[in-house]
Design brief:
two-stranded antiparallel ribbon, five-stranded antiparallel beta sheet, 2 domains, alpha+beta, single chain, about 170 residues
Length: about 170
């Protein structure tokens, strides 16, 4: 059993963000809207804008990778069915994630990464609400699509108003 002050290798997965070219404006930072009368209105891209910041042309995309690092144990929690270790960086690790060698930790981190990816895949095959029938789930997702289509129609109408407002400003 490990003890307080031991330096160990821990295995986990790390979430990081990767910048990718904006899927809306393709890096141009603006969108050109063609209205029903074939006139064009240039608007800032909100796909790559963040809060009050202007568009950047890039979006953040979450990724995961195996993570192995050296930690020092500062607390050990022992229960009848498990042992957990708290490290100096305030991370709590299960006994199955703590190793004496870096190589062992690397192997476990890859397994954790594969398990995470499998869980993500499984979620696609699960019902939105397990207590409901598959028929209810079909209804739910069809409703989500209808609601999204209504949102698109509303946003399209708002763009038409933006065109009118832009023309009013030009005419001033």
């Amino acid at each position: 059993m490990r003890k307080l002050g031991d330096n160990v290798w821990v295995a986990s997965i790390e979430r990081y963000t990767e910048s990718i070219l904006c899927l809306e404006c393709f890096g141009k930072k603006s969108l050109t809207v063609i209205l029903g009368d074939d006139s064009r209105v240039e608007i800032p891209c909100v796909g790559c804008a963040c809060g009050y910041d202007p568009p950047t042309g890039f979006m953040s995309h979450a990724q995961y990778k195996p993570d192995v690092r050296r930690e020092t144990i500062i607390r050990i929690e022992v229960e009848p069915d498990k042992i957990e270790y708290l490290t100096q960086n305030s991370h709590l690790f299960k006994d199955s994630e703590v190793f004496d060698t870096e190589e062992e930790a690397e192997k476990r981190a890859i397994i954790l990464m594969n398990e995470h990816n499998e869980e993500e895949k499984k979620r696609m095959y699960c019902k939105e609400r397990p207590s409901r029938t598959w028929a209810w789930n079909v209804h739910y997702h069809r409703k989500q699509i209808r609601d999204a289509e209504k949102t698109i129609a509303y946003a399209s109408e708002k763009l038409g108003i933006a065109k009118l407002k832009a023309k009013e400003k030009q005419g001033e």
